[in-house]
Amino acid sequence: MDNKEISQAVIGRLPRYFRYLGELKDEGIERISSQELSDIMKVTASQIRQDFNNFGGFGQQGYGYKVEYLYEEIGRILGLEKTHDLIIIGAGNLGQALANYMNFERRGFLFRGIFDQNPELYGKKIRNMEVRPMEEMESFVKQNEIDIAVLTIPKAGAVKVAERLVDNGIKGIWNFAHVDLNVPKEIQVENVHLSDSLMKLAYNINRYESESIQTPGSSL
Ligand code: NAI
Fold this sequence. Notes:
alpha/beta, three-stranded antiparallel sheet, 10 strands, 9 helices, about 20% strand
């Protein structure tokens, strides 16, 4: 199955489908119609069909979707049948919170190490992993074939650290630093800005409130 042509918008929706299907699977549900999936996910049934058609459908007329099959296929498209070895750079509040979040491992993202430049943190155990000095980062990445780095450091150091990671074979960066990284195009970067999501929430609260004022009672 070739997913080169699939739009980023569709790819962006796949993790959510994957999550919901995983929950259905855990509940022992074997099949689901696109209408039922639509009701649970609050996405139109036609959107679901359109999205899945990008990958050849998965559904059977009058039968719906096989939950486990769909879950596995979407996981495969997302590349989750492989495991990924991951390190965290920056053992502060955010780095420690992510390191302590066990659920990533369920998805095949294996936490291998955590690094910081602050000597006071060296040796401190975070989920049974000692914080290592940055001087060890390059050799660690190479020796352990680490493919993903999570950047939870301030923007001042992030560009330089990203270059060092790329020079040592990292394939993807999950970037929480508030700066655009300048990396070669074969390196995948996923920028995460929690505040963007919060601003979207603020916008939607405002929009909802102004619509309710314009059309009183419409929200009931
Ligand atoms: P923090 O101050 O608790 O931790 C930062 C850690 O990074 C410290 O332990 C520090 O020693 C280390 N560090 C700094 N420069 C480094 C370098 N060049 N190499 C290795 N280690 C280095 O900060 P916190 O709360 O964990 O946040 C980390 C960064 O993430 C901040 O810059 C913050 O702006 C950003 N952030 C981004 C969010 C997002 O949604 N994108 C959300 C929260 C924080």
